[in-house]
Specification:
- By secondary structure, the chain is an alpha+beta fold.
- It has helices at residues 126-130, 147-155, 160-163, 172-175, 200-206, 276-305, 322-338, 343-352, and strands at 8-13, 22-27, 30-36, 42-46, 60-62, 65-67, 74-75, 81-83, 100-103, 106-110, 136-144, 179-182, 186-196, 214-223, 227-235, 247-257, 260-269.
- Helix 2 packs antiparallel against helix 7 (322-338).
């Protein structure tokens, strides 16, 4: 499988990589180990020692370098060998390193050409770092299924009416025609559900009932490769929306392999920001929804696809699929334009440093 390489992928939440530990993960089918150097900066190198090919993540951090647990050879954050206990440092004693940036409570890795890595191209998610702890929550799961299946799930919110009827659903997404706007680097889908019964979750959080009515605007904005904000605003019926979104959720997918996905998610809000109990209740509800409803459905979808490509199965396309289909095609064009190196080519680069 080919991937978009010259872009920033979310690698981890920043607090997943402690000062004295390591985090081993696979991105775009490449094994990578994350650690912090002597100054506390996050680093990422290919997770295979060039000596006897054991995972460097089986070692430990000594003086800011990752030391192989098999024979004690150590590498710094640039992948250079800084210690060979058995003799001189040889020319081939190096591993590939990956540019990495810490921003918005997260670590971002560049899997493509290092010289092309530009931190200024990272999407602005400052609402995550600006939110106080009592108005912010986050999570992570590794799920079965290609990452584009997880992207589809967020880009078509009509599924909420059927998969989440007791929380996020209620029928308003299905009754509302979404507006899709595509630009050079983004795609936005907006649902304006006007004069609708509040969803069960809205009723619970706002003290409303089934006889109440609300206008709700939901806006999903996608950027490559798989970063999506899902923002929600409400207003009394007939009142214009003021352009702000009191609740913003982020959904970020990073391919682990062609069949597994790192799924990072977080929520922030601008109301009741000091209400820690509300924050915890919302986080628990969100985690329960995904763990018991979304994830099992995507697992089952992945299983029934039997390893075959989405387009190979000739899916029936409905009006509600417009946003997801346009994102799939847009991403495919970006990968083709980049030249989308195959996994084997990237691994050859990683092998030789």
């Amino acid at each position: 499988m080919t991937y978009l390489c010259n872009c920033w992928y979310m690698a981890a939440w920043a607090d997943e990589v402690p000062a004295d530990g390591v985090l081993a993960r696979r991105y775009l089918e490449e094994p990578v180990v994350l650690f912090r150097d002597g100054e506390g900066h996050a680093r990422a190198v290919f997770d295979r020692c060039p000596h006897r090919f054991v995972p460097l993540s089986k070692g430990r951090i000594v003086d800011g370098a990752i030391t192989c647990g098999y024979h004690g050879i150590a590498f710094d954050g640039e992948g250079r060998c800084v210690l060979n206990p058995h003799g001189p440092i040889l020319k081939g004693m190096a591993v590939r390193h990956y540019p990495i940036v810490e921003a918005y409570r997260a670590l971002w890795i560049w899997m493509g050409e290092p010289a092309a890595a530009d931190p200024s191209s990272l999407r602005d998610l400052s609402y995550l770092s600006d939110a106080p702890e009592t108005a912010f929550s986050k999570g992570y799961v590794c799920g079965n299924g290609n990452y584009e299946l997880f992207v589809d799930n967020i880009l078509d919110l009509t599924h909420a009416d059927f998969l989440h009827p007791t929380t996020l659903g209620g029928g308003s997404f299905t009754r509302t025609r979404a507006k899709v706007v595509e630009t050079d680097d983004r795609l936005t889908i907006r649902w304006d559900a006007l004069d609708e019964v509040p969803t069960p979750l809205q009723q619970s959080m706002r003290g409303l009932g089934p006889d109440d009515r609300l206008d709700t605007r939901t806006n999903v904005e996608w950027s490559a490769p798989a970063i999506m904000s899902l923002a929600t605003a409400t207003a009394p019926v007939g009142t214009p929306f003021d352009g702000t979104y009191p609740m913003i959720n982020v959904h970020i997918m990073t391919p682990e392999t062609a069949r597994t996905t790192h799924y990072f998610f977080a929520s922030s809000r601008t109301f009741a920001v000091d209400d820690a109990a509300l924050n915890e209740r919302f986080a628990e509800m969100r985690n329960w929804i995904f763990a018991t409803e979304d994830k099992p459905m995507i697992d089952a979808q992945h299983d029934r696809m039997g390893g075959r490509d989405f387009w190979e199965l000739d899916p029936i396309l409905l009006r509600i699929d417009e946003g997801a289909v346009r994102v799939r095609r847009k991403l495919a064009r970006m990968i083709a334009a980049e030249g989308g190196r195959a996994t084997e080519a990237r691994e050859a680069v990683a092998l030789h440093g």
